[in-house]
TrEMBL record:
<dbReference type="InterPro" id="IPR000182">
    <property type="entry name" value="GNAT_dom"/>
</dbReference>
<dbReference type="InterPro" id="IPR050832">
    <property type="entry name" value="Bact_Acetyltransf"/>
</dbReference>
<dbReference type="Pfam" id="PF00583">
    <property type="entry name" value="Acetyltransf_1"/>
</dbReference>
<dbReference type="GO" id="GO:0016747">
    <property type="term" value="F:acyltransferase activity, transferring groups other than amino-acyl groups"/>
</dbReference>
<keyword id="KW-0012">Acyltransferase</keyword>
<keyword id="KW-0808">Transferase</keyword>
<dbReference type="InterPro" id="IPR016181">
    <property type="entry name" value="Acyl_CoA_acyltransferase"/>
</dbReference>
<feature type="domain" description="N-acetyltransferase">
    <location>
        <begin position="1"/>
        <end position="141"/>
    </location>
</feature>
<protein>
    <recommendedName>
        <fullName>N-acetyltransferase domain-containing protein</fullName>
    </recommendedName>
</protein>
Length: 141
């Protein structure tokens, strides 16, 4: 397995993986749109895990100069339990640290205890926060 920066030739494999891992995502989380916006803004914070031409996993991170964020981690369902998510998190964390980031935040969908366990294994802790959001425009706008 090779973990590396996302490259343009990974696009179709990335979109297919995200659709497999998050089939019920709402339209505003369209993986192609999210990818295009991320690559245009901070391509150095997109990592993939590859086995030959097969994408095993990906992580999208962000940094605004104040906090780092893990926006998404996706591992091919058939490849879970191999440490792929942990390896990708390590890469994202190292890059964020090199940028001066001192704290990383992330969000987990309510009820996804398996993913909470993966993050806890990697040193993340549940914090007493309420997450709020606002959709500014729908993809159809």
């Amino acid at each position: 397995m090779e973990c590396r920066l996302y490259q343009p030739q990974d696009r179709e494999a990335y979109i297919a993986l995200m659709k497999r891992v998050f089939p019920d995502d709402p339209p505003w989380k369209d993986p192609a749109l999210s990818l295009d916006l991320k690559v245009a803004f901070q391509p150095e914070l997109m990592f993939v895990a590859m086995q030959g031409a097969q994408m095993l996993g990906t992580v999208m991170a962000g940094y605004d100069g104040h906090r780092g964020w893990i926006y998404s981690v996706a591992t091919d369902p058939a490849q879970r339990g191999r440490g792929i998510a942990s390896r990708l998190l390590e890469m994202a964390e190292a890059k964020l640290a090199s940028l001066g980031c001192v704290k990383i935040n992330l969000q987990v969908r309510e009820g996804n205890e398996a993913v909470v366990a993966v993050y806890e294994k990697n040193g993340y802790q549940v914090e007493p926060r309420i997450s709020m959001g606002k959709i500014l425009h729908k993809p159809d706008d």
